[in-house]
Amino acid sequence: MKRPAVQRGVALLIVLWGCTLLAIMLGGFAALARTEGLQARYQFAQTRAHYAAEAGIMRAIDGLQTPDPQQRWIADGRTYQFTFDDAKINITIVDEDGKVDLNAASADVLAGLFKAAGANDDQAGKLSAAVQDWRRPGDEALPNGAKRPQYEAAGLDYGPRNGPFATVEEARMVLGMNETLWAAVAPALTIWSGRERPNTEHAQPLALAAIPGLGAGGADAILAARAQGGGLAAGSNGVTHTIHAEAILDDGTRSSLTSTIRLRGIRSGNQPYAILRWREGDTE
User: One of this protein's GO BP terms (predicted)?
Assistant: First the structure.
């Protein structure tokens, strides 16, 4: 008579263990479903923010080409804001001809830029010469410059391109450039202006400081005139611009894009702009 009771006890124990196991499995599935749901919502929000930022880039291109000069956007770094769907979009546009061109800037402008970024006179002079030697053909270094022997002496397994910079980021490889200095000068550098010195109408503070003879007083006067709405007309925009667009949704989701574009004009059958560079996020 005892055996059936024992069997019933064992069966009950198995059922309890089975129920416990099933509960654990169901809990795991529920947690997994919740996690996947959260991920899906996050990805959806990020996608919406991304395309809102893209809309900001397109809006900026349209603003730069508006026929009415009074409505045309100005590429001097000021912030433009508008709403797209439920996203708030902040846009800044910087004209590339207001930056220091790595392939065209004079020795004085390059040295002035590095000094303005915190380098001492000796370091600024050497970096200026090294930049020139990077872009200059031939194997003979300028005084205080750097060709392959100087790079090898510094323990580097590469030398200068001996030709034009292909990207702005390539300047990080120039002998003597450190991360602190690079972080300071990067926003003021370009390879697309073709100018020996920045255009003062568009130049940001660091690029203005690089212009020989302008001085702090002259730079401050230019910036003050811009702040008061004077000193720069919309029609004076160049053709190559870097646009930064940041979209912020109501729930705080953010996405940012940075694009360098070259305007081609609005003509029948012609793409009105060309994209030279496209970056996602805020990193350089």
Answer: protein secretion
Residue 86 lies in a domain: no
Put simply, whether the predicted model's pTM sits higher than 0.90 gets the answer no
What is the token pair recorded at 35? 């996690």
| Cα 206 to Cα 115: distance, rounded to the nearest angstrom | 10
- How many structural domains does the chain have? 1
CATH of the domain at 190: 1.10.40.60
Nearest to 163 by CA among 125, 191, 205, 185: 191
Q: At what angle do helices 121-135 and 107-116 cross, to 10 degrees?
A: 130
Q: Measured between alpha carbons, how far is 74 from 236 in angstroms, rounded to an integer?
A: 8
Domain that holds residue 109: 100-197
Give the three-class secondary structure for 84.
strand
Read off the pLDDT of each residue in 47-51 and give the average, rounded to a whole number. 93
- Decide if pLDDT at 82 tops 90: yes
**159 belongs to a structural domain:** yes
Strand pairing partners for 189?
100
Give dist(CA 139, CA 41) in Å, integer.
57
Written as one letter, the residue type at 231 is: G
Amino acid (one-letter) located at 67: P
Question: What letters, b where the CB count within 10 A reaches 16 and e where it falls short, cover 262-274?
Answer: ebeeeeeeeeebe
